[in-house]
Amino acid sequence: MAVAAGWPDDDGGEFLDNYLRVTRRAKAVVRKVFGD
Question: A GO molecular-function term, please (predicted)?
Fold first, then answer.
């Protein structure tokens, strides 16, 4: 999946870490805007 997203072949772990960081931040923003 990382390669399909344009990440280098050897960065699968870094891609996952970045994905999780971004989605956690997006979840926090949604909760802040719309409430729990």
Answer: nucleotidyltransferase activity
The Cα angle at residue 27 between residues 25 and 32, in degrees rounded to 5: 95
Q: Where are the alpha helices (DSSP H) in the chain?
A: 12-34
pLDDT of residue 18: 92
Separation between Cα atoms, residue 14 and residue 22, nearest integer Å: 12
Q: Which residue type, as a one-letter code, is found at position 32?
A: K
Cα 36 from Cα 33, distance rounded (Å): 9
Q: Which residue has the tokens 């931040």?
A: 25
